[in-house]
Structures are given as structure tokens and as C-alpha cells.
Amino acid sequence: MLKERKRGHAEFFHFVSKRWWALWRLRDRELPVGSGSPQHTGPVDNEDLLNDRDRLRDGIDWGRDYMYIPPEAWYLLKSW
Asked: What is the pTM of this model?
């Protein structure tokens, strides 16, 4: 599980859709213990955070619509 850590001014984080994250967590819980990496949920999908011009939608809210993850977690999610 990702632990909350304070974001400093020079730190870099990735946005992840809470909708996608919830799907990933659900699939992760369905695995037998010790079976390896989570079932494939597809690539990280932040589509629900974007408008029709592929820019962040107005009114999205941290915690409700998206979360930040550190680069280490981003690369791990992308490798599965």
C-alpha cells in the first residue's frame, strides 16, 4: 500500500485516476497470497480526468477524482 508522504517543492509525482486505482485495488485483492503481480487491469487510465481536448477537466478534486503517486510506484504499476 502506498503511504502518504509530504510533497516537497522539488518532488515529482504522477496523477492517477481514483476510478482506475479502485479497479486495480479490487483486482489486487482477488489474487491468492503469494501469486505474484496483480491481474492485468490494463494500462493506467486517466481518461476520466481529461476534457475533450486532453487537458485536465475543470473541477477535478484531489482525493475524490485523483491521487498523487511517487515515480517509483508509477513505474511499478506500468511494469505489471
From this structure: 0.66
- Residue among 22, 45, 40, 44 nearest 80 (CA): 40
Low-confidence ranges of the chain (pLDDT < 50): 1-4
Q: How many CB atoms lie within 10 A of CB 32?
A: 6
CB-hemisphere CA count at 13 Å for 52? 0
Q: For residue 19, give its domain range.
A: 14-29+44-79
Q: How far apart (Å, rounded) are the C-alpha atoms in residues 63 and 73?
A: 17
Per the listing, cell 509525482 goes with 13
Query: Per the structure block, which three cell numbers stand in for 15?
Result: 496523477
Cα three-residue angle 26-14-36, rounded to 5 degrees: 40
The count of structural domains within the chain is 1
Q: Is residue 21 in a domain? A: yes
